[in-house]
Amino acid sequence: MSEAHHRKKQPVVVRRQLLDEAAALAVEQGLTGLTLEAVARAAGVSKGGLLHHFPSKHALLEALCDEFLRRLEERIAQAMAQDEIETGRFARAYLDAMASRDWMAGNGQWAVLSVMLFSEPEWRRRWHDWVEGRLRQNGDIDASPATWIVRLAADGLWLSDLVEGRQNQPQRRKAVLEELRAMTTRPKDYPCLEPKAPAEGFQH
């Protein structure tokens, strides 16, 4: 039995392979250069087989966004499940997920693709909505300025890893991560981050 025939009975496997190939091609050729024909050819399926999963290029790009967010969500959920400290739990999980070296495996295509996708207004809105949704879910335990700074720093570390790759000094990186994690559990150690009371006599 041919591999192609065998894969017809595994739509989930085929869909995942199509997304992986699309991610690799998008990084190589850019989003504008990505074509359905090229993705189908790289995945070894017919164009009709691809259209069964993704009826248009827009649908494919949308699925790529969703797949990246799914992978990120999965990492965050795993980290939160293993974290016994409630305060700052989401911020730490987000930091750990974004700082994971697994994203840089191979050619780091999903990490690179995320930057490409979320540079586009439509997909950037999708990212914004995802972040806002998670903050609403975890607002009670992640409301301090310190946790906001940690999340912003995690985004910066993500970009730094993309630019510097393995040249990002391991010891320095480890120290930064440890300090950021500490910020989420010891907000009182960072008085400059606490809201300041209005000066005496100050009128709004």
Detailed description of the structure:
The chain has 204 residues and is an all-alpha fold. The protein folds into two domains: 55 residues, Homeodomain-like (Arc Repressor Mutant, subunit A), CATH 1.10.10.60; 123 residues. Helix content is 68%, strand content 0%. It has ten helices and no strands. Helix 2 crosses helix 7, helix 5 packs across helix 6 and helix 9 packs antiparallel against helix 10. It is elongated. It starts with a helix and ends in a 19-residue tail after the last helix. The mean pLDDT is 83. It comes from Paracandidimonas soli. Pfam families: TetR_C_28, TetR_N.
Tell me what portion of residues adopts beta-strand conformation: under 5%
Order of helices and strands: HHHHHHHHHH
Cα separation of the termini = 77 Å
Estimated structural class: mainly alpha
Describe the largest sheet: none
- Proportion of residues in helical segments: 55-70%
> What is the mean pLDDT?
83
Uncertain spans: none
Strand tally: 0
Shape: elongated
Number of alpha- plus pi-helical segments: 10
- Structural domain count: 2
Question: What is the CA-based Rg, rounded?
Answer: 21 Å
Fold topology:
Layout: H1 3-8, H2 11-29, H3 36-43, H4 47-53, H5 57-81, H6 89-99, H7 109-117, H8 121-138, H9 145-164, H10 170-185
Summarize the structure.
This protein has 204 residues and is mainly α. The protein is 68% helix and 0% strand. The model has no long low-confidence stretch (mean pLDDT 83).
